[in-house]
Design goal:
The structure is a single chain. The chain is mainly α and 212 residues long. 67% of the residues lie in helices and 0% in strands. Helix 2 crosses helix 3. The two termini are 23 Å apart.
């Protein structure tokens, strides 16, 4: 769990250690205070470093946000792509996609809030890059829904709108999920997988039973 902050293992590939500490501190600060209300001094202080030390690894506060956002969006895209390319029919793959996507947003809710809700603070090419990743993510989920419509497993009059609604539902978990709540990330993932199948009009056959 986030335990009120960013999980260190999310940034295991970031080197050196000082840069990793700064990223973790930035996630915590952005999630608690918002990007615009956070100063570089806030971030450096949380990392146990001087403000001047931050600029050795990141030129600006916005560069820190870009790095965080890029890691989060690429991971989201990877999770959904694996589900899309997995075995099973459209219903199984959609349930798996939603389940894993929601579970990540619950387990990493602090990071996910920054990744999903601070996009507007990115500038220029950085925002364009992340927007392109979001479009790819939408296209991957939409392709699963399209497969289900094509095979007759799903009844979806508006594929694009329904796919967007599904993604929005998943992403919103990061806004309200808290550690120690009534449901675990696994339970929330299972719940949302079932909701997703109902949203696309899937009806399990008697021999396969429910997929969640």
């Amino acid at each position: 769990m986030d335990a009120g902050g960013a999980r260190t293992e999310e940034w295991a590939d970031v080197t050196p250690d000082a840069a990793r500490r700064l990223l973790t501190a930035a996630v915590q600060a952005f999630a608690e205070r918002g990007y615009h209300a956070t100063t570089t001094r806030d971030i450096a202080g949380r990392a146990g470093m001087s403000p001047a030390a931050l600029y050795i690894h990141f030129r600006t506060k916005e560069e820190l946000l870009h790095r965080i956002s890029g890691v989060g969006h690429r991971l989201a895209l990877s999770l959904l792509t694996r589900a899309r390319d997995g075995s099973g029919g459209p219903a199984e793959r959609l349930a798996d996609a939603v389940r894993t996507f929601v579970r990540w947003h619950a387990e990493h809710h602090t990071t996910a809030r920054v990744v999903q809700y601070e996009l507007g603070a990115l500038a220029g090419e950085h925002r364009s890059e992340i927007t392109a990743l979001r479009r790819e993510t939408d296209a991957v989920l939409r392709s699963i829904v399209e497969d289900g419509v094509r095979t007759g497993e799903f009844d979806v009059p508006d594929v694009r709108g329904t796919s967007l609604a599904l993604l929005s539902l998943c992403v919103d978990v990061a806004r309200w999920f808290r550690d120690g709540g009534e449901r675990t990330p696994e339970e929330v993932g299972d719940l949302y997988a079932g909701l997703a199948l109902r949203m696309v009009g899937h009806r399990p056959t008697s021999d396969t039973g429910p997929l969640t």
